[in-house]
Amino acid sequence: MPCPSPKTFDTLQNRLLDWCHKNKRILPWRDRPDAYSVWVSEIMLQQTRVETVIPYFENWMRLFPTVAALANASEREVLNAWEGLGYYSRARNLRQAAKIVAGDLEGKIPHDVETLRKLPGIGRYTAGAIASIAFGMDEPVLDGNVKRVYARLFDVTEAVNSPKGEKLLWDIARENLPKGKAGDFNQALMELGATICAPRSPRCPICPLREMCMARANGTQELRPVKKLKKETPHYIHAAGVIVGEGKVLLAQRPSKGLLGGMWEFPNGRVDGDPSRGVAKALRSGYSLKVRRKEALGIVHHAYTHFKVTVYVFRCDPLSIPENENLEWVLPGNLGDFPMGKVDRQIAGMVGR
Ligand code: SF4
Q: How far is ligand 1, taken at its centre, from the CA of residue 197, in Å?
């Protein structure tokens, strides 16, 4: 793997730091780069755009301004504050990790990557970001933006989503780290990837690194990073029931682990064939609910990371509903108090139509 010469190395660092100093966006977590802010913002930014994260981050800091405040919050409060950001295990892990910091670690967020990585939800990337940005440690980071920038700067032909490609990029990230300036440099790389070295149509003519970019020299910037092809995304058909009894609707809480863990939903299940015929059976086998299907209320489409789903929604009459702590009858006006994923929040909007 080509490595930059010392001269190039120095130029790469200085050019990037200088460019970032003049051009970086004003973001709320940059006002207060303490470890808690860096931690929360980096977790929120995983798989999520900056513009989406900003209002969530500001609201979060109003609700849970410190690790102790987060540790003392209930899971429902935390999931409510996260609703709409997706990947809800991130919120549950943040709360779990805050409890560990507040309890076992006397409220102090660890400085070193190894200890940070023992906390729930903190992987190599987030640990590197907290250690370098908040504590000034010489640790690299490698998120999607940084991978793309390095894959282009060094014209990496290895697939970046392969173990070999990933290792190679971590090695490059560590080799290029300017000692004592890792936090600023890491943020500059992320900023370049987010604003200039975009996934499509990178803005090479105004890039501060254009003269040293190997992909630009080879005309391969649109072909980098190389990615292994993923399997085709499956598409499932679900039927959901808005079960109405005595002016309330029935919600079910999902298991705490897995997709949308701990969130609330309208009982639903996968169906083969006609959803209007399959809904009663799906609710019986998934929740032991006996219902009578009434009219159709609407259809919701949603794409998760690994699959797509189309949900056909029906009003249903309850025939037999078991006592179960994961089932709750809720007044329509109180549905907003129950954290839900995007599909169920759309279904909630159909209640009362
Ligand atoms: S020159 Fe183009 S491809 Fe290379 S780092 Fe800059 S924006 Fe990315």
A: 5
Catalytic residues: 42
Q: Which residue has the tokens 């799906």?
A: 282
Q: Are 152 and 224 in contact (CB under 8 A)?
A: yes
Question: Ligand 1: does its nearest atom lie under 6 Å from the Cβ of 16?
Answer: no
Phi-psi region of 145 (alpha: psi -120 to 50; beta: other; left: phi over 0): alpha
This prediction has a pTM of 0.83
E strand residue ranges, the chain = 235-245, 248-253, 264-265, 268-270, 290-303, 308-320, 327-330
Percent of all residues in the chain with a pLDDT value above 90, rounded to a whole number: 87
Q: Does ligand 1 have an atom closer than 6 angstroms to the CB of 209?
A: yes
Token reading at 119:
């906390």
Residue 5 has pLDDT above 80, yes or no: no
Beta-bridge mates of residue 243? 316
List, in order of start, the domains of the chain with CATH numbers: 6-223 (1.10.340.30), 235-348 (3.90.79.10)
Ligand 1 atom 1, closest CA: 210
| Residue 153 near ligand 1, beta carbon < 6 Å | yes
- pLDDT tens readout for residues 126-154: 999 999 999 999 999 999 999 999 999 99
